[in-house]
Specification:
Layout: H1 5-24, H2 28-32, H3 45-55, E1 61-68, E2 74-80, H4 83-87, H5 89-101, H6 107-116, E3 119-125, H7 133-147, H8 151-159, E4 160-166, H9 169-180, H10 215-227, E5 232-237, E6 246-255, H11 261-280, E7 286-289, E8 295-296, H12 302-307, E9 312-318, E10 325-327, E11 347-350, H13 352-372, H14 374-393, H15 401-415, H16 438-445, E12 455-458, H17 465-477, E13 483-485, E14 489-491, E15 494-496, E16 501-504, H18 510-517, H19 544-547, E17 553-555, E18 563-565, E19 586-589, H20 596-605, E20 610-613, E21 624-628, H21 631-643, E22 649-651, E23 659-663, E24 666-669, H22 676-687, E25 693-695, H23 697-701, E26 711-714, H24 758-767, E27 771-775, H25 780-784, E28 789-791, E29 794-796, E30 802-804, E31 815-821, E32 834-839, E33 845-847, E34 857-861, E35 868-870, E36 883-890, E37 893-898, H26 912-916, E38 920-922
Parallel strand pairs: 3-4, 3-5, 5-9, 6-7, 6-8, 24-25, 24-26, 26-27, 27-37
Antiparallel strand pairs: 1-2, 2-4, 6-9, 10-11, 12-16, 12-17, 13-16, 13-18, 14-15, 19-21, 19-22, 20-21, 20-23, 23-38, 28-33, 29-30, 31-32, 31-34, 31-35, 34-36, 36-37
Helix pairs in contact: 5-14, 6-14, 7-13, 8-13, 11-13, 15-16, 20-21
């Protein structure tokens, strides 16, 4: 090869620059004192943040502070690319945004931009902090991209902008510090953390991304959905299935039917690049498809929510720990197949560094694909967005199991065909040339009433518009385009007020729009015909508008009106309401408005008396609040009208039948290691200004509870079943350590609720006048207390004994169901007559014939044999007439039992009031 003098000088300059950079930017060994992946070594976030700041000295790096965490730490993102690209980041970000939005771009213009742009790839680590490979591969990969000068790295840097994002700073600080606290390396472990590894929510931080309640989620969501809009995102997790090294793309069915096909085939392509590279490098043990439980059905995860935004979302789950581990002998994993083409051999000595090396190889596989296919990756996100816009501008029908079943049912009805499909020919090999005529297809997929909506209208005059605004903000944080009415308007013959919100489906992120408003139609998924169901990876149905109790209308035809388009990312506040001070009497506040509880708690804290009206007043329903006029009340209510969207209606005198509502001493159960459902309720109580204390099993076992508390809240998985320890399906529940092995400050958290000690203390508390609120499986307390209620989901065997319905007959994984509420009861004040609840194979009750005479009353129940609103409910007819929630007197006290998950992940705003109502006393 011949070089010109100019070429030699250029190469010499590159070498000299690299040498200077190597001196400027320290290696991990130089900074941390150990190599990333060394046995028994973990870096804290404090150390990692300091290292990121040193890496920023490189001209290949721009360090970005994307926001503060819940504990107040700075959350960093390293932007890595070639020096030339770093200097033009704004230009390339704009191109990425234009292609992702696809607004007003022709295919030819998109092709041109694809040629000019750089692929943008997101790589994160550390979301689940005990999955320590994630944070450490992030450090190692960043170092290698900054320090290496081989042709592949240079090609990547020239063609790709890499967003290396730390997903959970607080968690890394906790986990690494916990691991490193032991001087004896053999005693080091990431197990048995004393608290959740992200404040409030722990592992549920990967379930927060369509609502983004947490600061960390919002920080990352802003970069993903409003700023950079990467074409590819890679979410690192642990751990791989037993007998493998890792699970990765592509994933098992079902995938969500709102996706563009390019999403699924894009995942296939990246998956092929990843496992091909591992095979070339002699790194076995990659499993995919049905080799693991991961799918692309759920929305709400860091990886999955991006898929609803046309970003190729990748997840791997790898093994690895700084304490050496083993790959066990799992015979089934030792048979090569389509899911695991290259099995790994068992070993008793798997090292942390090996997992880091695998992860770096996987990152390089993704980045090399993006570099080589740069223009294709950029154009494809445009193509998916353009397809979405086109569908939103025309009549379209989403393909789904429900509609496929409707075609079959219509045909069979017309043909008087009563045969059942035995599942023996799922792909139609034996039925060449179906006899089903096109008229049956047309009856479903050309039925105007079954079209996908062109848009949605969220009326400003709904009872709890402030909560509807929170829903709108969840959409806005996710990059969805929203419009707002500047004047009253009419659509499809219905009038709407000014201030109403409009969300159209002719936008690039249409899959996410539909997924937030429309029901999820999960297929019937069984291991084999007649066999047990296959549990979804997470929820089967989650429609956020249903969970939040938002009122909206689906508009099937194109429509227009006096609408202004809100700037992307511009969060909304409830309308500032006028406030007229009362000269006497006082004010009425609606119990239907969630934010009213913020106001009531602020009033009580200021010493203002508050009353409730069991019969309602002036068209306002049972449970309406009455607040006497006064200087303090006026000031707080004026603020509430301006800040919280809470309206205060003036009345001239105190209504008859008013009952004083009093603040209570609230205790919220938690346990060692932290309960995620309890953490969510803790966050909710802080948001709604309820004062409370945490209570642990030892506190309960100590007794004298009524001297300290008035009400105790038990979230799901707190109270064990009557028969013994609960069969908890959560894989993340920790075993308890010995007290001597943990710092003294955490020892009071140890213990569990027990039948022999804890339950008698709770009964004593109730009988003395205390209130206990139970949610989900903690309604087991009703059985411990011998109340006149029984499990409604049972069948009698031949021996006459009852046993729970098997999964082949009844199975309702996380879904949205509809129930009736008795809103005349104080627990359901402010609730609608019919509403949606979050249900996850939740308890359902049958009240005994003498229950009413003993003061046991239903609060919510199933009135139909088809209560499914979103998700999957196999055998849902068994739910008819079952009681979902009830209240029962116990001595001088009261037990509330809510089977559904009424506080689910801080998302189910529509049922928050069921908890809040029970947190006040009555005089």
């Amino acid at each position: 090869m011949r070089y010109t003098l100019k070429g030699w000088l250029l190469m010499a300059g590159i070498v000299a620059h690299s040498a200077v950079q190597a001196q400027t930017v320290p290696s991990p060994k130089q900074h941390f004192g150990f190599n990333i992946g060394d046995d028994y070594q973990l870096a804290t976030y404090t150390q990692t943040a300091a290292y990121f700041q040193k890496l920023a000295a490189s001209d290949r790096v721009k360090l970005m502070d994307i926001g503060l965490t819940e504990e107040g730490r700075h959350q960093y993102m390293l932007v890595i690319s070639s020096p030339a690209n770093i200097r033009q980041l704004d230009q390339y970000k704009k191109i990425s945004q234009q292609l992702a939005r696809a607004e007003g771009l022709t295919p030819a213009q998109a092709k041109e931009l694809s040629e000019k742009g750089k692929a943008v790839v997101w790589i994160d680590g550390g979301l689940h902090a005990t999955e320590v490979v994630g944070t450490h591969q992030l450090i190692e990969t960043a170092w290698q991209l900054i320090s290496r000068n081989d042709p592949e790295t240079m090609r990547i840097l020239d063609n790709v902008i890499i967003l290396m994002t730390h997903a959970n700073p607080d968690g890394q600080e906790l986990t690494s510090s916990w691991y490193m606290r032991n001087a004896d390396t053999l005693k080091r472990s990431t197990d048995q953390l004393p608290v959740l590894y992200q404040k409030y929510i722990g592992h549920d931080n990967n379930r927060d991304f369509y609502i983004m309640n947490m600061k960390e989620s919002a920080n990352m969501g802003k970069q993903l959905f409003l700023e950079w809009m990467p074409q590819i995102m890679y979410n690192h997790h642990q751990r791989g299935p037993e007998g493998s090294v890792l699970a990765g793309p592509p994933y098992r069915d079902p995938f969500n039917y709102f996706f563009d096909p390019l999403m699924i085939t894009g995942i296939d392509a990246l998956g092929a690049a990843m496992y091909n590279r591992l095979n070339v490098e002699d790194k076995p043990g990659y499993t995919r498809l049905n080799g693991s439980s991961f799918s692309t059905w759920y929305n709400g995860g860091l990886r999955t929510t991006t898929q609803y935004h046309n970003m190729i979302g990748l997840l791997t789950e790898i093994i690895g720990n700084p304490t050496p581990e083993k790959i066990p002998v799992v015979p089934q994993r030792l048979i090569p197949n389509g899911a695991t083409p290259n099995p790994v051999r068992p070993t008793g000595d798997w090292r942390f560094r090996t997992s880091i090396d695998y992860s770096v190889s996987l990152n390089y596989a993704v980045l090399d694909y993006a570099a080589r296919q740069r223009d294709e990756v950029l154009f494809n996100i445009y193509k998916m967005g353009k397809n979405a816009i086109d569908k939103g501008n025309t009549d379209s029908w989403t393909l789904s199991p429900k509609r496929a079943d409707a075609i079959t049912a219509a045909y069979k009805k017309a043909q008087h065909d009563t045969t059942k499909d035995d599942g023996s020919d799922p792909y139609g090999w034996m039925r060449r040339g179906s006899n089903i005529g096109m008229e049956y297809y047309d009856a479903v997929y050309k039925n105007p009433a079954e079209r996908d909506p062109r848009g949605y209208v969220i009326p400003a005059d709904q009872p709890d518009f402030a909560t509807a605004v929170k829903f709108v903000n969840a959409l806005i944080k996710a990059g969805i385009g929203v419009q707002k009415a500047t004047a009253a308007f009419t659509v499809a013959g219905k009038q709407y007020p000014a201030g109403s919100y409009i969300v159209r489906t002719n936008q690039a992120f249409r899959p996410h729009v539909l997924d937030m408003f429309e029901p999820q139609d999960h297929p019937n998924d069984f291991q084999y015909p007649g066999g047990p169901p296959v549990r979804p990876y997470d929820a089967a149905g989650w429609t956020l508008a249903f969970q939040m109790g938002v009122k909206y209308d689906r508009v099937l035809d194109d429509f227009s009106g006096p609408f202004e388009k809100l700037p992307y990312g511009e969060l909304q506040s409830p309308a500032v309401l006028s406030f007229t001070p009362a000269t006497g009497g006082g004010y009425l506040l609606s119990a239907q408005v969630n934010n009213a509880f913020i106001t009531i708690n602020d009033l009580m804290k200021a010493g203002v008396k508050v009353y409730r009206l069991p019969e309602g007043q002036d068209g306002m329903g049972p449970g309406t609040f009455f607040v006497p006029a006064g200087a303090s009340a006026n000031s707080i209510l004026k603020t509430a009208a301006a800040q919280w969207g809470v309206s205060a209606r003036v009345v001239s005198k105190r209504p008859k039948g008013a009952i004083e509502a009093t603040p209570l001493r609230i205790a919220l159960w938690d346990n060692y290691g932290g309960s995620m459902p309890s953490g969510w309720v803790r966050w909710m109580m802080e948001q709604y200004h309820f004062p409370f204390s945490l209570v642990y099993p030892k506190d309960i076992d100590a007794g004298t509870l009524k001297q300290r508390y008035d009400v105790i809240v038990f979230v799901t998985r707190a109270i064990p079943p009557v028969g013994g320890e609960e069969n908890n399906r959560s894989a993340y529940r920790q075993t308890q350590p010995d007290a001597a092995d943990i710092p003294e400050q955490y020892r009071n958290m140890l213990g569990k609720i027990s039948k022999d000690t804890s339950i008698p203390k709770l009964k004593e508390f109730l009988e003395a006048g205390g209130t206990v609120i139970t949610i989900g499986s903690s309604t087991n307390l009703a059985y411990h207390l011998g109340l006149p209620v029984h499990n409604a989901l049972v069948e009698k065997g031949k021996d006459g004994k009852e046993s729970p319905l098997p999964g082949t007959k009844y199975f309702v994984p996380g879904s949205i169901l509809q129930v009736a509420f008795d809103s005349t009861q104080s627990a359901a004040w402010g609730m609608p007559a019919v509403g949606d609840v979050n249900f996850d194979n939740s308890p359902v009750f049958r009240l005994d014939s003498d229950a009413a005479s003993k003061g046991v009353h239903p609060i919510a129940w199933f009135t139909t044999d088809s209560p499914l609103r979103s998700g999957w409910a196999w055998g849902q007819s068994y739910l008819k007439d079952g009681v979902a929630a009830f209240e029962a007197p116990v001595g001088k006290g009261k037990l509330y039992a809510f089977g559904p998950e009424i506080t689910f992940r801080g998302q189910s705003h529509g049922t928050f009031k069921l908890l809040f109502n029970g947190l006040y006393g009555q005089k």
